[in-house]
Predict the structure.
Amino acid sequence: MNDIHVLIGGSQGSGIDTSSLILASALSRSGYGVLSNREYYSNIVGRHSYIHMRVSALEIPRSLSYPVDIFAALDAESVFFHFDDISSRGYLIYDTGVSKTRIRMISSMEPESRSRIESKLRTIGAGDSVESLVNVLESKFNITTIGLSYSSILDVISEKYGLAKAEAQRFKNSIVVGAIAGLIGLNYESLSYAIDRRFGKRPKIAAINKALIAGVADEIKENYGEPLKLEKSKLNLEEVLLVSGNDIIGMGKIVGGLRYQSYYPITPATDESVLHETYEALKVDGESIGSIIVFQTEDEIAAVNSAIGAALTGVRASTSTSGPGFSLMVEGLGWAGKNEVPVVITYYQRGGPSTGLPTRGSQSDLLFTLFASHGEFPRVVLSSGDHLEAFYDAIQAFNIAEKYQVPVIHLIDKFLANMTATIPLPEWSKIRIDRGNTILKTDNTVWRRFDKNSIISPRPVLGSGAITWYTGDEHNELGHITEDPINRLEMYEKRWKKLQLIDADIPEEERAIYYGDGDEDFLVVGWGSVKGTILDSLRELEKEGYRGAFLQIKMFQPLPSRLISKILSSFSPERVIDVENNIGGQAARVIAMNTGYTIRKYILKWTGRPIYLMELIDGIKRILSEREDRVVLSYGK
Amino acid sequence: MNDIHVLIGGSQGSGIDTSSLILASALSRSGYGVLSNREYYSNIVGRHSYIHMRVSALEIPRSLSYPVDIFAALDAESVFFHFDDISSRGYLIYDTGVSKTRIRMISSMEPESRSRIESKLRTIGAGDSVESLVNVLESKFNITTIGLSYSSILDVISEKYGLAKAEAQRFKNSIVVGAIAGLIGLNYESLSYAIDRRFGKRPKIAAINKALIAGVADEIKENYGEPLKLEKSKLNLEEVLLVSGNDIIGMGKIVGGLRYQSYYPITPATDESVLHETYEALKVDGESIGSIIVFQTEDEIAAVNSAIGAALTGVRASTSTSGPGFSLMVEGLGWAGKNEVPVVITYYQRGGPSTGLPTRGSQSDLLFTLFASHGEFPRVVLSSGDHLEAFYDAIQAFNIAEKYQVPVIHLIDKFLANMTATIPLPEWSKIRIDRGNTILKTDNTVWRRFDKNSIISPRPVLGSGAITWYTGDEHNELGHITEDPINRLEMYEKRWKKLQLIDADIPEEERAIYYGDGDEDFLVVGWGSVKGTILDSLRELEKEGYRGAFLQIKMFQPLPSRLISKILSSFSPERVIDVENNIGGQAARVIAMNTGYTIRKYILKWTGRPIYLMELIDGIKRILSEREDRVVLSYGK
Amino acid sequence: MASKSTFRTDVWIDWCPGCGDYGIVAAMSKAFSELNLDPSKLVVVSGIGCSGKTPHFIYANGVHTLHGRAIAFASGIKLANPELTVVVNGGDGDLLGIGVAHFVALGRRNLDITVILHNNQVYGLTKGQASPTLRRGDKTKSLPAPNMQDAVNPIALALSSGYTFIARGYALWVDHLKELIKQAIRHKGASLIDVLQPCVTYNDLYTTDYYKDKLYKLEDDPSWDPVVSRIEEVEDKMSKALAKSLEWGDRIPVGVFYVNPLIETYNERIAKRNPTYSIIPPAKQLIAKNNGEPIIGVEEFKKLFSDYIIKIVK
Amino acid sequence: MASKSTFRTDVWIDWCPGCGDYGIVAAMSKAFSELNLDPSKLVVVSGIGCSGKTPHFIYANGVHTLHGRAIAFASGIKLANPELTVVVNGGDGDLLGIGVAHFVALGRRNLDITVILHNNQVYGLTKGQASPTLRRGDKTKSLPAPNMQDAVNPIALALSSGYTFIARGYALWVDHLKELIKQAIRHKGASLIDVLQPCVTYNDLYTTDYYKDKLYKLEDDPSWDPVVSRIEEVEDKMSKALAKSLEWGDRIPVGVFYVNPLIETYNERIAKRNPTYSIIPPAKQLIAKNNGEPIIGVEEFKKLFSDYIIKIVK
Ligand SMILES: Cc1ncc(C[n+]2csc(CCOP(=O)(O)OP(=O)(O)O)c2C)c(N)n1
Ligand SMILES: Cc1ncc(C[n+]2csc(CCOP(=O)(O)OP(=O)(O)O)c2C)c(N)n1
Ligand code: SF4
Ligand code: SF4
Ligand SMILES: [Mg+2]
Ligand SMILES: [Mg+2]
């Protein structure tokens, strides 16, 4: 096989993260491309969670799809949740110890899910126990069900290593790693490397894991004969980064010169700041090359405002948050805009509105970021389509912020944030630090901080030697309050004109990326993490004779309107499709607002789950067949 | 004369509010229409402020214009500020006691204003003293300058009534009332009525004022002979309300059933809550017909959230604020949307961004209100064009909120809020209370608060006898958290569909008002307090042969898109002009976003001062002559 | 289905096994039941966090609000309908960090609301960051390095903010806690119960083991009398309560720290200004006639707003 | 033009004639001058209100922020460049109402910032509503009815939040106040000066007349020693300070209430974890080479993030 989808399900806190990490590291070590998404409830222990992973021998995967080739269930609940996610000819790994478990015994399942699953069970003629379901899967759906007695396996381990029963439980997740490794023929060296990488500092645990995983893998190999054996990888890489979106953005910021990161804990943004905490003392070869202040504040109001304060001193300052936090940052954002402060807000969109689905994803905050805060001031809103882009954009965000002295919102979604991917190392030739007209040191105390002679006034920072004033009130060139109408007219316009300046400076082609040769006959428009799925869907569709192009919007403010208009109008209006993870078609509305072009066809999803390849392909076909104007996607548990 | 513009200038705290109130009451008493705007700095004492008033014998004025017929200056600063606001043949009333004052002695003048005024003085060949300026006005500009010795007049009073010098100072503003009354021939009875209305409870002060005003008026009459004598009023009214926008909205809310008003002090919203405080115990003929809780909170976060809490119990609950406050309410707004809570936010726009121009006006928060808060949920955004509309809309806001169970933002601007007007009493036949499916009492404890069977689920309030749950998380019909994707899909869409429902229910003609016969050849688009100025400008232009129509947008969410499209496309695109008090043409952008129609011509102003009739007329002509696409207005001090 | 007698819904509780929050729910529902409250006249309001989920498990009206804002919502509810019993549940991050402005304001108003603080020294639901009640230098297993900020003392803060009933309970002493909750609800005015609530997943410092031998009940000392019976006693009782609140080491007191029944509640303060308020709560007032006409007709309007009306005399 | 020696700009002060704020500006600029501060290394940060305008009148860097948020901005400034002297000016509404979460947080961190509270018991700039320091029952001329909320005691709140220098001054005693400001700035850690500031326009209760015969200086009592010299003294000095803070009636104390120089500042706490921090402030660190390349090149990247890098072995 060149391409495999794997799903691992288990309850929150039962270690599927570890399984996934070990599998992903081992696969990466062997040179495969991996992309893996984690779905979990807003809960610490007990609710169902799962890892959905794609492995490729040919490329770095850009999308996830269903059904999966292998589904490994750590508990009964997982079996009930995902039995219909397995492809016919696929493999189900489960615990025979839960065979007798009936769905109604599983109290952690929400009633809405339970009743839907129960009716599915009835439809396929399964009873309400794991056993009866497994039988039906085997008999009617051609699925190979591999029942293992997890407790017997753990008993062996606990005996061999003298572990208490409860201790041994913590190795349960390694059973499924072993089983998967056996089915796909993952080699021992890679597994062993991956285990050391995870448990290197605890050799006993590493050793037990190795033994357990190898043991199970061998047994599976023996009984089933590596039925899904992965081909040797054709990827041409010597080393890769294995990172989540949070990780790579955190790294990008550090490379970009981050020296101040404030945050208040919130899913799915916190992980970025946790990474920064690890790198507070920026040490290379034991020598510190700088220090990052990571400041956990009392709330998001303090997070944004302290970052603005920090930015005034000349550090590259940022804060990371998601919807509820950003809602509290709105007033601060306006102050930064008014005072021309370069501050970067990394905004991880989750499912809204309000507390919403805190651990699920969306792309539903675009319009909010564009117009948040009262009054009018320039801001830049930048979005990234994948891990590597996010890395470069994190640096770019600082450059734009400093060069144009504006707040920059870097808009990410939870899908990208929480997906782990193997990616190549970034290319340093693409990286530049541009601090614009930032003045770190001057002998001149007298400065007109808001000199109207140019749109971007030179910016001596606090502590540089200059004396400057700032105020959220309308101000004169010195930064003192004035209500004079003509100063108002000019100062307001000076700020506003930055948008035009940025629009003129940054090539439109960098702000909206066109993927196509020019001879395509339909166009998909999208942004953020749907990028990979769209590109893969077009590739698949091409095989069936459809020829589509993709327009990825990267910068929403200032929007590259001329380029977008040109591209949109080169397609038949019936064949331009907007794909977004929201209900309002927000990017399409931004386009309409700026260009007057109204997109007519939509593929939308707002269940909080990512858009999957197979449903997008289907959706595009439905649109192209002109049966539907709006396709609503809903796949995923 | 049928129509007179008067300007009164003086320093903040010197009593020009009282002058204005007395004048306006007296004029109203005599049956004239009055519209009066107050401009002031964000300052308690000492900065320059002024009243700009229009009086009409023919109608209730809808707009203000320059130049003025009479300008009465309480101090030297005012003379320097406004000398060029007086029409030739106009009248300047000033204090000969400040004749020698030079502009550079006036420390309260901001440097930007001072240097511009100084250069104006040079241009017209005036020196830098009041005296030299007055001479030039008289000699070169045909202005009648009436110099009075304010101190001598006050000396007479203090002698006659045995007042200390400092006490007598407090009557200074009555001198200008008297002078104005003399010039326009305002009768003593009306003045006396107005003075009693203001000082009725302090008869001595009333008596002094009467004597002083009558004395000055007589003297002026004697010397100048009522040169601007007002014609007898042709208005056909028996009684009028003399109210600010804050007042009339406060009254509308009370009539509409307001029982809970929370607020945190902020200009220009506070005055509404201050009115409510006066009416906490709603007494008619000594009997209480209800009680309003007016709750001053610790911040705006508490203001909005406590109002939402109150709304859950079934009271009509509201909060009032302006930009900085609303910026803090954004998270609460989302919770209300998610939980289908009828709460009304009255939003008084001031000059932004950030602290901005706290006491000046704008229409720059429209886009913010439309998209504030993360995620997607329905809200209604309603704007009012004048005092009477605002009254009805304040009631309508509650009806919509309760009927559709959505937060409603009633969008006002500082211009409307702070303009005092004589208006007829509202018509009760137009007023209805519609509480929709609000259930105040039930015997049934079991309720599916978010029953998906209808878009609007019946709403038993807290305390009704039902038991209900609310959460900002995605929830099931009972209001309990669920992350189930299909419930998510449906519950999200249930909420979202309210927008369609409202769009279908409320006639488009009520949401966008078209003023025209259908044979006009250009169209002006606008919203909020520019309404009156636009209508008057069209009337004036008609006299010169231009024939224009006006499209007033009243509801921005849901926008009456079909009607707007129809109207817009019936005009030549070169002859559709957007008029707004902002830099971004925000209403035009909302129209583009919803209809794809891009307006090409703009008349914009963002100095924080209202749009005046004469500059709008000029702007429209400039646009129609096709010389300009964008006219920026800037008149006003 | 859920049931009134137990005050428990059938919603599955998704807290970690062993979490102290279970004890709080048990104590609350027992207290409600013993007080014989009508669940439809009871409103449990919460913020965001593990603690924030509480209302879903209680069979009574539940309002699960925003992080830090429970008190603000609760205040609106109580003001608009004083007949409702309002109980707030919040985390230590929720009430003493992001929401501390509302916490302080509630005390200053002495509004009749009971606040139950789930004090676990961590931000539970976001994975164990230090909360405002964790002491400086403490390092729970969830922290990469020792905590850098000093702790807030909830009892001291409540005292200085004006709460008139202040107690501390322990999540595992359900019956004791239940009694505190009953007293707090019966008390007229703002009450705080600081509940020491072990978080088994992230907090390995303040565990059941830690508390086991340290906790003692204030009421076991017969001379302990926290109740202000004459206004002159306020200062003395307050400073005694304060001193007790600083005890944190080998011995940690639980029980009632301070009660002052002599201070007017906010509702009483309003009623003084506005007597109708105490007769019929705003939530129950009629605003329209059956035909939809507002109860304020044109005549009532003219009387109410006569100050703004001018009769024209031409 | 403005001048360094007087630390005053030539911006016209638009406070009401007689406002106590004039005294605060006078005391501040004298203090700065006597401390011989470099105005370019001094940052005066303020919130919104009459008090918020202060920085515009001082010849030093000025950051006039948002209502309630001055401390948050100031914290970022001080953390990013600890070499700057940071002084916050805020109103009582600003610091103790809307912004109280930041006020408390600053104490918990003991970050080296001086907070000057303009305590005039009203919201000045919005026309005299009751601020959090106005007592219940007080009715200033700007209020329609007596105040319904209890007051916050700034000294007590600062004590319980962890401020390590706490004093009270009087706006009209400029030289006395100046000395307090100097001490506060010299003190390493979070300091609060509660300045009684008559608002002549809206507050007719707490006037210069009111204060005249009541104020007395703590330092006039030779036995008054507010400084903690050994850590064991903390509780005692704190409770003495607290008792003093409750004195409000015929006699009102001003002067230094509490000083604790033994607590690590937040900057010191950071430096412990991260020694580079104390050597070169983040604001002065190099992030790029002259040609625009980041100082973290590909090699440095690989070393820094080696945990995330996997070498492929096919
Ligand atoms: C405005 C906002 N910021 C951040 C979050 C993320 N968040 C959810 S729970 C929580 C902390 C919970 O800690 P605590 O209040 O102590 O409650 P616990 O979970 O410990 O009961 C945070 C920060 C949020 N929901 N809203
Ligand atoms: C978020 C926000 N809410 C409200 C306001 C309006 N506002 C301006 S000043 C002020 C109160 C000032 O009172 P205080 O903090 O005591 O300062 P003082 O004027 O008395 O010095 C308020 C509420 C604002 N600027 N921002
Ligand atoms: S994380 Fe802690 S507080 Fe939250 S449920 Fe688990 S044990 Fe309880
Ligand atoms: S209103 Fe009060 S605080 Fe403000 S400037 Fe005037 S006197 Fe000072
Ligand atoms: Mg907690
Ligand atoms: Mg104040």
The mean pLDDT of chain B is 97. The two ends of chain B are 26 Å apart (CA to CA). Chain B touches chain A through 81 residues (CB under 8 Å). The pocket of iron/sulfur cluster (ligand 3) is lined by residues A 44; C 15-16, 19, 21, 50, 120, 124, 199-202 (CB under 6 Å).
